[in-house]
Amino acid sequence: MSCCITSFLYSILLYFAIIPALTLLAIRLTIRKLRGKVDITNEVDISGKTVIVTGASDGIGKVTAEEFAVRGARVILACRNLQKAERAVADIRMRTTNGEMIIMHLNLSSLSSVRQFASEFIQKYGGGLSILVNNAGLVNPVGMRKLTEDGFEEAFGVNHLGHFLLTNLLLPELVKAGEKNPSDPSRVVIVSSGAHSWGSLSLDDLMYEKTPLEDWKWISKLYCNSKLANNLFNLELAKKFRSDKVNVNCYALCPGFVDTNIGKENMADNPPPFWVTHVLFPLLKLVMVKDAKEGAETTVYCSLSKYLTHHSGEMYRNCEFWDYSKRPKLSEKDATKLWEKSEKLVKLN
Ligand SMILES: NC(=O)c1ccc[n+]([C@@H]2O[C@H](COP(=O)([O-])OP(=O)(O)OC[C@H]3O[C@@H](n4cnc5c(N)ncnc54)[C@H](OP(=O)(O)O)[C@@H]3O)[C@@H](O)[C@H]2O)c1
User: Fold this and answer.
1) Per-residue confidence of the chain (349 residues) as pLDDT tens digits?
2) CA of 137 to the centre of ligand 1 (A)
3) How remote is the CA of residue 250 from the centroid of ligand 1, in Å?
4) Domain with 127 in it: what CATH number?
5) Which one is catalytic: 10, 125, 208, 223?
6) First-to-last CA distance in the chain?
7) How far is the CA of 128 from the centre of ligand 1 (A)?
8) Which domain holds residue 161?
9) What residue range is the signal peptide (predicted)?
10) What is the atom index within ligand 1 of the atom nearest the CA of 110?
11) Is 10 a catalytic residue?
C-alpha cells in the first residue's frame, strides 16, 4: 500500500514539477543562446573618453553607465532625478572604482532643461564627446494624452523631441571627438523599441490633437509612435552624417523585453487581469524576459563594437543587425519630413 502511494507521489512530482521545470529551463537556455552577447574582444578602447547616457538613474541606462565606467570612460549620467542618480552611482561604486562618474541634470520634457544641459556640458567638458546614448524614455498610460512643459504630447516630446534637440546641440562635440580619432568614429546610440512596428506617425498631427487614440489594452499607441520617431530620426541622422562627411555614426536598437520599472506605475492605474500578473508575467519573466544587464547588451554592442565602425543608420537587436527592409513604415521621405518638423518644434531653425 505504502509503495503504491510513494510511486503515485513520484509520478505527480515528475509530471507536475520536474518535467515542466526542465522544459522551462531548456526554453530559457535556448532563448538566451539565440539572444547573442557582447563580444568584449571586439570593443574599442574608451578609457579616458567622454560619454553621455540619458536616463542613467535606472534600468538599462544605469547598467550602460556602469559598463562604460568599468571600461574607464568619463561617464556623464544625464538624469532628471538627482537623488536617484546619486543612489545609482553609489550602487555602481560598490562594484567598480574604474572611470569617472558625473551626474548632470537633464529633464527631457523641458526644452530649456535640454539647452541648459548642453551648454553646461560644452562649457565644462567640451573637449569632444565620443558616445551619446539616447536611452531615457517613458511609457505613457494607455488612453491618456499628457503634455510636456512645452505643450508637446509627452511620449513624443520626451522620447523623440528632447533627444532630437540634445543630439543636435551636441553635434559639434561629437564631430570634434570623431576628428581626433579618424579610425574610431563617435557614435549616437538611440534606444528605440520593437514597438515602433506598431506605431504610425501622423506627420500633420504629431501631437495627436486631432487623430483619435487607438490604444491597445496594455500598450500606448503614443509610445509606439515615439519609438517609430526614434527610428526615423536614426535614418535621417545617418544621412546627414554621410552628406556632411563627419566621422560620426548612429544606430537604433531594441533592447528586448526587459524587466525594469518602465510603465510600472501605469499598471497600478490600469492593472491587467489576475492571470496576467500572477501567471503570464511570472512565467515570461522566468523564461524569456531579460534583466537590465542583459537588456543593456545591445546598447553596449552598438556603442563599442569594432564590427560597426563602418556602419551607420541601421537597427540592432540581440547584438545583431535587424533588417529594416523586413519591417514597414520606415520611409526615407517620412524621416526627412519628421526631421524638418522636429527642427521647427524645438526651434533649431
Ligand atoms: N524595458 C523594456 O522592456 C524596454 C523595451 C523596449 C525599449 N525600451 C527602452 O529602453 C529605454 C530605457 O528604459 P528602461 O526599460 O531602462 O526604463 P526605466 O528603468 O524606467 O528607465 C528609464 C529612464 O529614463 C528616465 N526618464 C524618464 N523620463 C525622463 C525625462 N523626462 N527626462 C530625463 N530622464 C527621463 C528615467 O528617469 P527616472 O529615474 O527619474 O524615472 C529613467 O532613468 C527607454 O527608451 C525604453 O523605451 C525598454
Assistant:
1) 677 888 878 888 777 778 888 888 888 788 777 778 889 999 999 999 999 999 999 999 999 999 999 999 999 999 999 999 999 999 999 999 999 999 999 999 999 999 999 999 999 999 999 999 999 999 988 888 899 999 999 999 999 999 999 999 999 999 999 999 999 999 999 999 999 988 888 899 999 888 887 766 677 899 999 999 999 999 999 999 999 999 999 999 999 999 999 987 777 777 778 888 888 888 887 777 899 999 999 999 999 999 999 999 999 999 999 986 666 667 899 999 999 999 999 999 7
2) 4
3) 20
4) 3.40.50.720
5) 223
6) 87
7) 26
8) 36-256+295-345
9) none
10) 31
11) no
